[in-house]
Specification:
Strand order of the largest sheet: 11-10-9-18-19-20
Radius of gyration: 23 Å
Number of domains: 3
Order of helices and strands: HHEEEEEEEEEHEHHEHHEEHEHEEEEEE
CATH class of the largest domain: Alpha Beta
CATH topology of the largest domain: Purple Acid Phosphatase, chain A, domain 2
Strand content: 15-25%
Helix content: 10-25%
Bound molecules: fe (ii) ion
Number of strands: 20
Oligomer: single chain
Structural class: alpha+beta
CATH superfamily of the largest domain: Alkaline phosphatase D (PhoD)
């Protein structure tokens, strides 16, 4: 029901009751109901963008009616409307609102309407993705490993938006609090994006209102240090995640949050390296898996392999919350799963899958790169966003085993930042830049397309 119809119905109902119980009672009731109108508490955050659709996360203060108005016009003339949704207590009054009918590559402005009232003082916006079959030039950004506090901001967030990325990947450890309960998980998702934390306000003010977000956890935002499928809070972690993030369709949402999406000639495969992982302490043999330790049907390894083999994208980018390079962090990275790591590398080689890149987190580095000599495929370690690392390891990253990287690694404590990936054409290549919070370029790598 649209807003006009809703108002008309309410009015008609009011008149109906007024004739029976008297105008005074009705006017009082209407005043009361107006006083209890709900408000937007969190969001919006946009994700799951395609060339014709998107999803928007919102959270409101209580049971109310919410919808979006959206248009290519910055004044919302000729606006389209989403369906009305009614956020529920059991979902923490969150909602993921789908919108469709978009035109490719166009900027869309949108307003959130809560109980009939515009909730945003200024409109949010995003750019619809291009069709899958085009070859185009664009950039996107990647973040990993955040230290959230009431006082420490996240200037990486502010700086990266100056590069106008078409989307942002957050590839894990968006927080390090290891939430144990559903309520703790929900609070974490709110704080890292706005409420109560200085870094969250950076996200809200610089990223959320312009840039589509794609996020998959690592251990500390999943809820268990060095976590795996045995985490008792796994079902709650998945529930809270699904409440709070607008994601592409999840291949197996009861089991985990791995997902993929496409932007023009690039396909991104975001691994969930926790919820289906065997415990690190198990023997590293063909039975040990980071991707499908429980051997479930429709599992993550099957999804990854068929996705890579069948992808028509020129570039296949895999994100991993932990380092893929098995020479580093062997207690919790892919170095603890070398049999499966070899299986993945062999699958890529045997099926002649070219132009694969891994973006990984977890090192709290200032950036690192391997051309595939040690990692099996080219891999860039995404620097931490803003961690306070003064008391950390003497190696300058969060491991005594930094491993071997063909371009070396940059210490973390003085070097927070982000990765900017620029996709070029004619000739096709990826420019990978590790950038600091002032936009300084600390590392540049180029991957030429292998036809
Ligand atoms: Fe971390």
């Amino acid at each position: 029901m649209d807003r006009i119809l809703l108002c008309r119905s309410l009015f008609n109902a009011s008149v109906f009751f007024a004739r029976r119980v008297g105008w005074t009672v009705v006017i009082g009731t209407l005043l009361l109901s107006n006083a209890s109108a709900e408000s937007l508490t969190d969001g919006p955050v946009v994700g799951a963008v395609t060339d014709s659709s998107a999803k928007v996360f919102v959270r409101v203060s209580g049971p109310g009616a919410v919808y979006l108005e959206y248009s290519t016009d910055p004044n919302l003339r000729f606006a389209m409307q989403s369906d009305v949704v009614y956020p529920r207590y059991r979902d923490d009054f969150t909602a993921i609102i789908p919108i469709d009918g978009l035109l490719p590559n166009r900027t869309y402005y949108y307003q959130v309407i809560v109980d009939g009232q515009p909730a945003l003082s200024s409109l949010s916006s995003f750019i619809a993705f291009p069709p899958d079959d085009v070859n185009t030039e664009f950039s996107f950004a990647a973040l990993a490993d955040v230290g959230n506090s009431k006082s420490r901001g996240a200037p990486s967030y502010a700086r990266l938006t100056m590069d106008e990325p078409r989307f942002l990947l957050q590839i894990g450890d968006w927080d390090h609090r290891d939430p144990q309960t559903l309520d703790e998980m929900r609070l974490m998702h709110r704080e890292v994006r706005g409420q109560g934390m200085s870094s969250g306000r950076y996200f809200r003010d610089f990223i959320a209102n312009t840039t589509p977000l794609y996020y998959v956890w690592d251990d500390h935002d999943y809820g268990m240090n060095d976590g795996d499928y045995t985490f008792p809070g796994k079902a709650d972690a998945i529930k809270a995640y699904r409440e709070y993030f607008p994601t592409p369709e999840l291949p197996n949402p009861k089991a985990g949050i791995w997902q993929s999406f496409r932007y023009a000639q690039v396909e991104i495969f975001m691994l969930d390296v926790r919820s289906n992982r065997d415990p690190n302490t198990e023997i590293d043999d063909e039975n040990k898996s980071m991707l499908n330790g429980e051997n479930i049907d429709n599992g993550q390894k099957e999804w990854l392999f068929s996705g890579l083999a069948n992808s028509t994208a020129k570039w296949k980018i895999i994100t991993s919350g932990v380092t893929f390079n098995p020479t580093t962090k062997p207690a919790d990275g892919w170095g603890a799963f070398t049999t499966e790591w070899q299986e993945v590398v062999d699958f890529i080689t045997a099926n002649n899958i070219k132009n694969v890149l891994v973006l990984s987190g977890d090192l709290h580095s200032g950036g690192a790169f391997d051309d595939g000599t040690n990692a099996g495929v080219p891999e860039m370690s995404v620097p931490h966003s803003n961690m306070n690392m003064n008391d950390d390891h003497p190696t300058g990253i969060t491991t005594h085993t930094p491993g071997t990287w063909t371009s070396g690694y940059i210490r973390g404590p003085e070097n927070p930042g982000y990765v900017l990936v620029t996709v070029e054409t004619n000739p096709d290549k990826l420019i990978l830049e590790v950038k600091g919070v002032s936009g300084d370029i600390r590392m540049t790598e180029t991957l030429e397309l292998d036809d």
